Amino acid sequence: MERNTRQRSAIRDAIAKADRPLLPQEVLDAAQQLVPAMSLGTVYRNLKALVEEGELQPVNLPGENPRFEVVGHQHHHHFQCRQCQRVFDVHACPGDLSHMAPQGFTVEDHDVTLYGRCKDCALPAAKATRRKSSEADTHNHTHTHRHVG
User: Fold this and answer.
1) Under-50 pLDDT residues of the chain
2) Beta 113-116 vs 77-81: how paired, if at all?
3) Strands 87-90 and 67-70: what pairing?
4) CB 70, CB 56: distance < 8 Å
C-alpha cells in the first residue's frame, strides 16, 4: 500500500528532475525546496519504500554509498566525476564483453563506470590550465629579456 505524502512526492520529484542518480543527502537538499522541514531520516525511509515498491532502484558504485534513480531506464552505465563526485547516466554500452572473461566462464551481466571530470568541473580546470600556461609563457618571455643584451 503506497502512502503518497508531500514528502514522498518531493523525493520523487527531486530524483526525476535531477535526471541522474542522487545520494540521499542530494535528495534531501532538493526535496527541502518543496518541504523545508524534511529530515534525512524521512528521506531514507521513503527511499527504502520506493525501492521496495519498484519505483526507484539503487545505483551501487564500488566504495560509495548507494545513489538512487528512477526505474525504467534501459540498460545503461554511469560516469562519476572525480572532482565533484556526482554520478551521471551514460546511455551507451560497449556491448557483449564475454570475450574479456576467462576461458570457460559465462558472462551474465556487467556494469561499467567511467571516471573523469563532468562538464561543470572540466571547464574551470581547462581555464586554469590555460591561465597557468599563459602566465608561464609571459614569465619565460620576461625572464629571457632580462638576460639578453
Assistant:
1) 1-2, 140-149
2) parallel
3) unpaired
4) yes
